[in-house]
Amino acid sequence: MSDPVVTRATVLAEALPYIQKYYGKTVVVKYGGNAMISEELRNAVISDIILLNLVGVHVVVVHGGGPEISEMLKKVGKESRFVDGLRYTDEETMDIVQQVLCGKVNKNLVATLNRLGGQAIGLCGMDAGLFEAKMLDEKYGLVGEIVQVNPAPVQDSLKEGYIPVVSTVAQGVDGENAYNINADTAAAKLAVALKAEKLILLTDVRGLLQNPKDESTLIPVVELSQVPELVKDGVIQGGMIPKVDCCVEAVRSGVKNTIILDGRIPHSILIELLSDEGIGTMLR
Question: Which chain positions carry the site (Transition state stabilizer) (predicted)?
Answer without folding.
Answer: 30, 243
